[in-house]
Amino acid sequence: MTMNIKEAKEQIKNAMTAYFTKDEFGSYAVPVEKQRPVFLMGPPGIGKTAIMEQIAQELDVCLVSYSMTHHTRQSALGLPFIEKKVFNGKEYQVSEYTMSEIIASVYETMEATGKKEGILFLDEINCVSETLAPTMLQFLQCKTFGNQAVPSGWVIVAAGNPPEYNKSVRDFDMVTLDRVRCMNIEADLGVWKEYAREKRLNSAILSYLELRPKNFYRVEADVDGLQFVTARGWEDLSNLMDVYEELGIPVDEEIIHEFLRHEDVAEDVSAYFDLYKKYQDDYGIAEILEGKVKPSVYARIDQAAFDERLSVVNLLLDGVSNVFYQIQREREITDAWYDFLKEYRQKLKNSLQAKGIFETILAEKTASDEQNEKQQFVSKAQSDRARSLNEKLKECAKKIVAEETINIEETALFALAKEPFDAQCEKLQSLENQGIETLEHAFTFMEQAFSDGQEMVVFVTELTITPEIAVFLSEHRIERYETYKNQLLIGTKRAEILSEIARD
Which terminus has fewer CB within 10 Å in the chain: N or C? Predict the structure, then answer.
C-alpha cells in the first residue's frame, strides 16, 4: 500500500506510541523483541527525516539519526580486538568488537538529555556498501550491531530508496521483510504545501507550484544523464532565497539549477520568479494592503491571463500572511511573558525573601531554553521568540534589582515587573487591529478585482489553511471572510480549480 508522507507520519507515530506504552507492571505492552522496526521506502528528498524529527518532538523522546551511506562496516559494527577466554580448561583467543559508533551515540544522547526512550533512525539503509549489507540485515532482524544491542526503550525506524532512484539499492530477503513494518511513500504536493506553509517557505515557490504542480517532483533520465527535482530541493532553495533577498543578492537561473537539477524546470522557475517580482512592483501589493489602489491596477488585472491573476492573489496572501505571522509571534511572546509573571507573583507571595526571585526565575528559564535549543527540541522560530523574550526580561531584571536595593515590598516589585508586559499587550492589540485592517483592504481589492470568481475561492481557502491566519480567524470574527467561506463551498471549488490547472 502506498501513502503520502503525512499518512506515513501518522502511522509511524501510532506505532511509536504503542511501542512506548507500558503495562501496570512497568513492562512494555508490546514486548521489545516483538517491536518490529519500521521501514520507509520512498523517493529521496520527500521529508522522511523531517517527519522523524517531528514525531520525536511530539512524543518527547530522543532521536538519533544516521545516513548509512556515510558509514563503513567498522563504524557500524565496531573495531575488532582479541580477547582471551577459557573453554573446557583451555585458553583461546577470541575476536570481540568495540561498541558501535551508532550504539554509542544512543547512550550519549540518553546521558545528555536524561531521557531513556528514543528513536534510532537509519536513512538509506538499503543503499549501503557490499561489506556493510550483512550487518544491516542482522541489525533489522536482531536489533544488534555485532554483540551490542539497541537499548530497551529505543525503537528502530529505517528508510530506503526504491531501485529506480538509486543504482546501489539492495533488495531485502524475505526473512528480513518478515521482521519489519514496510511503508511505501510517494511524493504529494498537497501534503508538502501544508508543511511549506507551516515552515513559511518562500511565497514565489508556492505560487509557482500552484501553477505548475507537475514540476514538484520529477526524476528523469535522458542522454544528458539524470535530471531531477525533489521536495528537499524546493525547501533548500527557499531557505537560500530568503537570505539572498535580505542581502539584496539576485537568485538567477544558475543558482536555481543548483537546487532543482532539471534544466527545463530551472529555466521555467527562473522566468516565473522574475515575473513574480515584477507583479509585486507593478501592482503595488504593499499599497493595496494599505487600501491605496491605483485605478490602472483594476484595468490591468481585468485584462490579465489567469496565471498573472493567480500570482497577484498569491502576492496578496503573502503580504497578509506576513502581518499575521508577526501577530502570532508577538502573541506567543505575550503568552510566555504572562506565564513568567504568573510564576514570579506566586513565588513573591510564598517566599519570605523577595529579593533575587525575578533573577532566579529568569536564570532557570534561560537555562531551560538553551537546553531545548541545544537538544533541538524546538524550532528556530521558537528559539528566536524565546531569546527575544529573555532579552526583554533581562532589561526588566535590571530595574527590579535597582528597586530591590531601596524597596523590597511585594506589590511594588510586581508592579515594576508588570509595566513592560502591559506595553507588550498594547503592542499586540495594535498589531491585531492592523491585521484586521490589512485583511479588510485585501478583501476590498479582491471583491472589486475578481468578485466571487475562481481567484476569490483560492484567496479564501488559503486564508483558511494558512496556520497563522487560521488561528486569528478562529478567535476573531471577520464578517466578509465568514460570508465568502460559506458561499464559495471552500474545498470543493478549490479542488476543481487546481485540477483544471494541473491538466493545462
Answer: N
CB 198 within 8 A of CB 47: no
Counting residues of the chain whose pLDDT is more than 90, the rounded percentage is: 61
Write out pLDDT tens, residues 222-260: 777 889 999 999 999 999 999 999 999 999 999 999 999
Distance (Å, whole) CA 283 – CA 290: 13
Strands (E), 181-248: 181-185, 218-222, 225-229
CA–CA separation, 161 and 169 (whole Å) = 7
Looking up cell 539572498 gives: 244
* Helix (H) / strand (E) containing 65: strand 62-67
Cα separation, 272 vs 265, whole angstroms: 10
Please, what is the Cα angle at 51 between 48 and 55, to 5 degrees? 140
Asked if residues 300 and 288 have their Cβ atoms less than 8 Å apart, the reply is no
The phi and psi torsions of 428 (rounded to 5 degrees) equal -60, -45
Q: Which three cell numbers stand for residue 166?
A: 538509486
What pLDDT, in 10s, does the model give residues 413-429? Answer: 999 999 999 999 999 99
Residue type (1 letter), 496: E
Alpha helix (H) residue ranges in 228-351: 231-247, 253-259, 263-283, 285-289, 295-303, 306-350
**Which range, of 41-50, 203-212, 263-272, 482-491, averages the lowest pLDDT?**
482-491
Give the Cβ contact number of residue 53 at 10 Å.
Answer: 16
The rounded mean pLDDT for the chain is: 89
Tell me if 71 sits within 8 A of 136, measured CB to CB: no
3-state secondary structure 446-496: HHHHHCCCHHHHHHHHHHHHCHHHHHHHHHCCCHHHHHHHHHCCCCHHHHH
What is the set of domains in the chain, with CATH numbers?
2-72+104-186 (3.40.50.300), 188-283 (no CATH), 340-427 (no CATH)
Please give the model's pTM, rounded to 2 decimal places. Answer: 0.83
pLDDT at 386 > cutoff 80 = yes
Residue among 240, 322, 296, 225 at smallest CA distance from 273:
240
Pairwise CA distance, residues 339 & 424, whole Å: 14
Distance CA 138, CA 140 (A): 6
Length of the chain: 504
DSSP assignment of 161-175 equals: --GGG-TT--PPPHH
Check whether 74 has a pLDDT greater than 80.
no
Q: Please list, residue by residue across 246-267, b when 16 or more beta carbons sit within 10 angstroms of its beta carbon and e when fewer do.
A: eeeeebebebbbebbbbeebbe
Q: Cell triple for residue 174?
A: 524475505
> Which burial class, exposed, middle or buried, applies to 305 when counting CB atoms under 10 A from its CB (0-12, 13-18, 19+)?
exposed
- The closest of 425, 460, 396, 266 to 333, measured between CA atoms, is 425
Bridge partners of 159?
A: 40
